[in-house]
Design brief:
By secondary structure, the protein is α/β, with parallel strands linked by helices. It contains 21 helices and 22 strands. The strands form four sheets. It has a seven-stranded parallel beta sheet, sandwiched between helices. Helix 5 crosses helix 6, helix 6 crosses helix 21 and helix 18 runs antiparallel to helix 19. The chain binds adenosine-5'-diphosphate and magnesium ion. The site of adenosine-5'-diphosphate has 14 residues, from helix 9.
């Protein structure tokens, strides 16, 4: 048994299924057995026929009291009917297109059936149930796992494949958690946990198995962060900036008054910069809260103390935007800013690289291009990354390596609740800007359903006629899902050629070349485009003060935090702005989400609610939130376990920070796997 074995060797997996499994992220036996159920169906508790409620999934045990009847409905479509009864009532069962059923049932025998029932005036019907004859338990009589899957891989097939995989590893898995931890925290061993998470005999068993797996996942995440932290704080001294260079010189010169929150954060940064320990600080603040100004003032201090500064932005547009802001504010202090993005000419680039090395450039602003090896600083002292959660930790350390232990300021607009941020960014100190500059006009948010479409379109037209611009954002569930990609295109064609054919409408999407994309974005910024249609958050952070409308199509498909980010694209200028969430769902959760968006513009509240709602079974990729992805842990539900894990992590940090003790060998292995594996933190 080798956990790294390709899934193609698992019983029941042919070439087509390999593809489907790969799509789910399952490549190896290990991936397979750690592909956990998203839910369970309790098929273990039979109900009497009379107790069944309309619409519920139930197990009944009943005697067959009819022959099976085959009805040809049309070509290639046959229906099979069977009547069964228990001592409380009768139930009519139907199936479609399953001729093998004709020989399955013996008149007068008892069977178990599990399926959805419909009750019409006391008559009970069950559609396409699974069933077992007496004394067999293939489909019923147990708790059955439900896995997240796609159309191409039916639930039953996936369940069987996983079951085959899980059967291969019975008692074969190595225990990587030390015995003392299992004992102290009352955790199930790994072999039982894997068996029971997939095949629990009771919900108690499931809970125990889940607890162990969540504990392990969170512990490894925490230990990985610990590892990073100790890598970064290599005992080495950082830069001690001069206390003669005063941030207040710039602050007093600004055209506006900084908010209390901005001032507090600047004090924290100032203290870090003047101390000889190097700064590793996360600056969290909602969109528009004024993080950029903070970074500009910090950069001033670094430059005037004799160092260079690197600013990394996730896109060229944002980098260009930053260059404008930085130059505008720092020109008068004779500070030289330059832009390094992939689209500049070779000649210009060489010039920049030369000047950078000579120290003629003080602040270099750019994209990933800054990471290239030939980008050499004379004296890099401060690194600012503006992460709309795009850079991994590894990229961050790559830029840091270009200096001699420079200070690092990481900016993010993802509003993570503080408790969570402390845990997730355990390697950074945290500053929060929790206040917006005064006199911002609150964005008005509306959620609308299909029937309102025309009114919405008229509203957009009216705003454009008044000189404003609009964004229309469509979801793209998966970048490579052809069907969705097409429908977005169709939609934009409709807007372009029919609904707004008299306006200037353009479309940007993820598959465009960066250069094309940038051109369109620039045109939008310059006001040459009235309505910009885009697939997702391609250009978060873009500042177009004249844009006053954000329309989100299929808003039910976005997470709250993402909707909040999108909404932050408008309301950046003097104009009253609007966010219109078009949604297409009757689900309770969708309505709740829309309501939250209408009720609050506080990113932190929204982030908390988002976690809460996701906790209740809705699933959204965590990547878009900038949080690490978990296979089983849920940061909201598992806060208690997280606290236990934090305590333990602190203990390990004290006793054995490098995991060198024999008893920690397994943990070390897991941490290393996390670093070398597909997981990017
Ligand atoms: P963020 O980077 O957090 O999204 P920015 O730094 O881009 O926000 O600030 C958004 C806008 O608000 C900018 O135009 C900036 O000049 C302005 N601004 C920042 N701080 C203040 C303040 N204290 N008062 C008024 N305007 C401010
Ligand atoms: Mg910004």
């Amino acid at each position: 048994m080798n956990l790294e074995n390709d899934v193609k060797y698992i019983k029941g997996v042919g070439p087509n299924r390999v593809q489907s499994l790969n799509k789910l992220g399952i490549f190896t036996l290990k991936d397979l057995i750690t592909y956990y159920p998203r839910d369970y169906e309790d098929r273990s508790k039979p109900k009497k026929i009379i107790e069944c409620q309309d619409g519920e999934d139930v197990l009944i045990e009943a005697i067959v009291v009819s022959r099976i009847v085959e009805l040809k409905i049309r070509k290639n479509m046959a229906m099979y009917k069977l009547t069964v009864r228990d001592e409380t009532g009768v139930c009519n069962i139907t199936w479609f297109n399953q001729p093998y059923l004709k020989k399955q049932f013996i008149y007068g025998e008892k069977y178990s059936f599990f399926g959805k029932v419909h009750k019409k005036s006391s008559k009970l019907e069950m559609n396409s149930p699974v069933f077992d004859s007496k004394n067999t338990n293939k489909h019923t009589g147990k708790i059955v796992p439900i896995y997240p899957t796609t159309f191409s891989l039916p639930q039953n097939t996936l369940r069987q494949i996983i079951d085959n995989g899980v059967s291969q590893v019975v008692n074969e898995l190595d225990e990587n958690l030390p015995q003392y931890i299992l004992k102290k925290y009352n955790l199930l061993n790994i072999n039982d946990s894997i068996q029971k998470i997939h095949k629990p005999q009771s919900f108690e068993e499931f809970k125990l198995a889940r607890r162990r797996l969540v504990f392990e996942e969170l512990l490894i995440m925490q230990l990985s962060l610990l590892n990073l932290k100790s890598n970064w704080k290599k005992e080495q001294k950082g830069i001690k900036y001069s206390n003669k260079i005063k941030m207040s010189d710039v602050i007093n010169d600004l055209p506006f008054k900084l908010t209390k929150a901005q001032l507090k954060v600047l004090e924290e940064i100032d203290a870090d910069m003047e101390s000889e320990k190097s700064m590793n600080r996360l600056l969290q603040g909602d969109v528009g809260s004024g993080k950029t100004v903070v970074s500009i003032i910090s950069a001033y201090k670094a430059v005037k103390s004799g160092y260079q500064v690197a600013i990394m932005a996730p896109t060229s547009i944002l980098a260009t935007q930053h260059l404008e802001s930085f130059s505008k504010m720092l020109e008068k202090y004779n500070i030289k800013c330059e832009l390094l993005i992939s689209s500049i000419t070779k000649k210009h680039k060489e010039e920049i690289l030369q000047k950078l090395q000579n120290g003629e450039i003080d602040i270099l602003i750019g994209t990933h291009a800054i990471l290239e090896e030939n980008v050499v600083f004379k004296n890099l002292g401060l690194v600012v990354t503006d992460e709309q959660h795009r850079f991994g930790v590894r990229q961050r350390s790559k830029i840091v390596a270009k200096g001699n232990n420079p200070d690092v300021l990481v900016m993010t607009a993802t509003p993570i609740p503080r408790t969570l941020a402390l845990i997730l960014y355990g390697d950074l100190d945290i500053s929060i800007i929790d206040e917006l500059p005064p006199n911002r006009k609150e964005i008005e948010t509306y959620s609308v359903t299909k029937g309102m479409e025309e009114r919405v379109n008229n509203f957009v037209r009216k705003q454009v006629q008044e000189g404003r611009q609009a964004y229309i954002v469509c979801p793209l569930v998966e970048e490579n899902e052809e069907i969705n990609a097409k429908s977005v295109l169709e939609l934009s064609e409709k807007y372009k050629n029919e609904i707004f054919n008299d306006l200037s409408v353009e479309y940007v999407h993820g598959k465009m070349k960066p250069k094309e994309k940038d051109e369109i974005m620039q045109k939008f910024k310059d006001g040459e485009i009235d309505i910009l249609i885009s697939t997702t958050v391609i250009e978060v952070g873009v500042n177009v003060p004249n844009a006053s409308i954000m329309i989100v199509e299929n808003a039910e498909r976005f997470g709250l935090a993402q909707l909040h980010q999108l909404r932050g694209r408008v309301g950046r200028g003097e104009y009253q702005s609007y966010c219109i969430l078009k949604y297409n769902s009757n689900s309770e959760i969708a309505r709740k989400r829309m309501k939250i968006m209408q009720e609050t513009t506080d990113g932190f509240i929204i982030a908390e609610k988002d976690l809460e709602l996701r906790g209740s079974g809705e699933f959204f990729g965590t990547k878009q939130h900038g949080l690490p992805e978990f296979k089983i842990a849920n940061l909201f539900e598992d806060m208690d376990i997280l606290k236990e894990v934090q305590g333990l992590t602190l203990e390990i940090e004290r006793e054995d920070p490098k995991l060198e003790k024999e008893e920690h060998a397994g943990l070390k292995k897991l941490v290393n796997e996390k670093f070398s594996g597909r997981i990017e933190m």
